[in-house]
Amino acid sequence: MPQTKDTPLGRAGGVRAGSNGPVPSTRRRAWRRRMEPSRPGAARACGVVRATPPAPRPPGPVGHRQVIYREAGQFKETYASDQAIFPIVQDRVVVLAAAVAAFVVPPLVASEYWLQAVLIPFLIYALAAIGLNLLTGYAGQLSLGTGGFMAVGAYAAFKLATAFPQLNVIVVFLLSGVVAAAVGLLFGIPSLRIKGFYLAVATLASQFFLLWLFNKVAWFTNYASSGTITAPDRTLFGALITGPNSTPSARYLTALGLVAVFALVAKNLVRGRVGRSWMAIRDRDIAAEIIGVRPLRTKLLAFAISSFYCGVAGAELVFLYLGSAETLAFDISISFLVLFMVIIGGLGSIVGSFLGAAFIVLVPIVLSNAPHAVGLRLPVALQKQIELMVFGGLIIFFLIVEPRGLARLWQITKEKLRLWPFPH
Amino acid sequence: MRVRIVSIAMLAALVITAPMLVVAQPKEMFIPLLVYRTGPYAPSGIPIADGFVDYFTLLNERDGGINGVKVAWEECETQYDNKQGVECYERLKGKSPVLVNPYSTAITYSLIPKASVDKVVVFSMGYGMSAASDGRWFPWVFNFPTNYWSQASAVIRYIGQQEGGVEKLKGKKIAHIFHNSAYGKEANPTLEELARKYQFELTLLAVDHPGQEQKATWLQVRRLNPDWIFM
Is A85 domain-assigned? Predict the structure, then answer.
């Protein structure tokens, strides 16, 4: 069992097959590259699980005073604890603390500008990026139809919310996700025959077709003369959460709650049978078919679930962020933007979707505010051009430094932290 | 190493404190200008943006401002994009603007519901939501002197004049080539109503964003051979 080296115990014991350690054979490296996204599972399979309780030891992380991120001494005594999303105590604590902080801190301290112009779009794009990551990162189906699927969600939410004013807005979001899933299923059918760039072109067709449809058929906008959809006022637990009269905090908390739940669902999906069948299809579809993964069901499921996420994100974009939108808000640039988020964040990584969304949403805003903040007055056009150039440069820089995305950088940081303070 | 850390820390502190050092000057009215000097619509956006700046400068230098109050402005680049426009509005509304000039119909639509909550005046002159002309329902939005509906009827009236009276419009072919967005679509209901009233034949031809692909539209125009084209 060569994987033993990858177990946390093996790593902590000083044997390391990482980038700076003893160079593994090319074959083994190739195997590792393929297995990358499912590595926690691989490590799990080889078993640090003990059938019998270990000899009594001091609980919690022990050892060197300076070592803060180290799992030595944490023993898994049940399969459940071994299969946890975050098997290491420190990870659990940090993620939980971050989640609690995300719910508590910004509504208290962040200004309206930060909530409205930075954090809410970040959360919405993170949800869309998770959706595309399920499809492109995990199932390996390149899609450029994200903007179209988001538009389906937005227009479905608008139609549902105006046709059934009594319907809870969360139910509206979920139902609009279902509508988007159905549309995604339809446009996923070509994926059974075509792959790669050709599939990207086929999904591009869906992008253009859907926007054309919403622009052309006035029924979708309730016959508004301008073709614009506007989010009506809706409440949740007695508080307004959509429409112009809702507070940014309420909208932020709604977006955060949805993205937290859906990220958890996505994480569990990709850890389970569904996610593994997606990865099998991605890595080698013929081999996957031979071992019993049905391509039809697996690919279409990926399209449906991905579109569901994108649809909910699209509904949120109109209801929680913009307030009103026309089809232009969902044009092809959105599809590319979400794809960049997934690529920069890390293909096949849930945390990468968040990192990528943060990068794409935050960096332009920081860049456009930076000259002002240091008292530099540039003409806006020049500033915009500089912003675009620096932003593009940063994208290229990060892709050269780490082609597997920010999530991989995060992973490397954790691995280094494990050995810290010993240079290795 | 230490020098680097200290310099980074100082730079960070500067970035945070610099905006606070700018002292607000009284006797100025602040007008945020949402402009699109870049992006696909820049060719029309640059002269308009320059025009605003030139006119405000003229008012300040020649008349000492408006009623003795100098005009202060800040431009914000929107690229004619809804999301960037909303971001600009959120950034600049804290500076207590006299009015906001979105210069995009789509951005105006996004700002109309927000403006009434924030108590900010949106001035979309000649564009934006035509229905907002009715101040009973839209007290915070102004779009004088014209709106898309009055512009459309003015065009039809002019065509009528050229033809020798609006009753001569009967049976004429008029094509409306419009940008397939809120900006272009707003005039359509008026044109349709007038087409019914004066019995001319109206053809609506949409040009999609960003407007570079117009071949199909002009092929249709050639086939239709309209008497008048309204763009």
Answer: no
My answer on whether A109 and A182 are in the same domain is yes
Chain-chain contact of A368 with B113 (C-beta, under 8 angstroms)? no
For A140, other C-beta atoms within 10 Å of its C-beta total: 23
Among A316, A334, A352, identify where a domain stops: A334
Q: Are residues A183 and A329 in the same domain?
A: yes
Whether residue A99 is contained in a domain is answered as yes
In this structure, are A33 and A123 located in the same domain?
Answer: no
Domains identified in chain A, total number = 2
Please say if the pLDDT value at position A42 is more than 90: no
Chain B interface includes A39 (CB < 8 A): no
B76 touches chain A (CB under 8 A): yes
Q: Give the H or E element holding residue A234.
A: strand A234-236
Q: Which of A180-184, A260-264, B173-177 is the least confident region?
A: B173-177
Residue of A nearest to B185 (CA): A226
A16 inside domain: yes
Whether residue A187 is found in the same domain as residue A323: yes
A206 and A321 part of one domain: yes
Q: Is the pLDDT of residue A141 over 80?
A: yes
Under an 8 A CB cutoff, do B79 and A368 touch?
no
Cα A42 from Cα A292, distance rounded (Å): 20
Closest-CA residue of chain A to B81? A329
Q: Do B82 and A326 touch (CB under 8 A)?
A: yes
Q: Distance between CA A151 and CA A331 in Å, rounded?
A: 9
Contact residues on chain A for B94, CB-CB shorter than 8 A: 112-113
Instruction: Quote the pTM value.
Output: 0.81
SS3 A19: coil
**A380 neighbourhood in chain B, CB within 8 Å:** 35, 37, 75-77
Tokens for A421, please give them: 């303070």
Do A21 and A121 belong to one domain?
no
A132 min Cα distance to partner chain B (Å): 21
Q: Any idea what the Cα angle at residue A123 is, between residues A119 and A125, rounded to 5°?
A: 115
**What three-state secondary structure class fits A86?**
coil
Residue A359 resides in a domain:
no
Last residue of a domain, one of A306, A334, A362: A334
CA distances from A41 to A7, A48, A85, B81 (A): 10, 12, 10, 44
Residues A1 and A137 occupy one common structural domain:
no
User: Most B CBs within 10 Å: which of A125, A228, A246, as the mutation test of the B interface?
Assistant: A228
Residues A108, A221 within the same domain: yes
Domain limits for position A25: 1-46
CB contact under 8 A, A112 and B90: yes
Show residues of chain A in contact with B87, CB under 8 Å.
117, 365
- pLDDT (tens digit per residue) in A104-125: 888 888 888 888 889 999 999 9
| A83-109 pLDDT tens trace | 888 888 888 888 899 999 999 888 888
Per-residue DSSP letter, A6: G
Say which range, A190-199, A373-382, A400-409, has the weakest mean pLDDT.
A373-382
Residue B207 and residue B214 in contact, taking contact as beta carbons nearer than 8 Å: yes
- Dist. CA A332–CA A339, nearest whole Å: 11
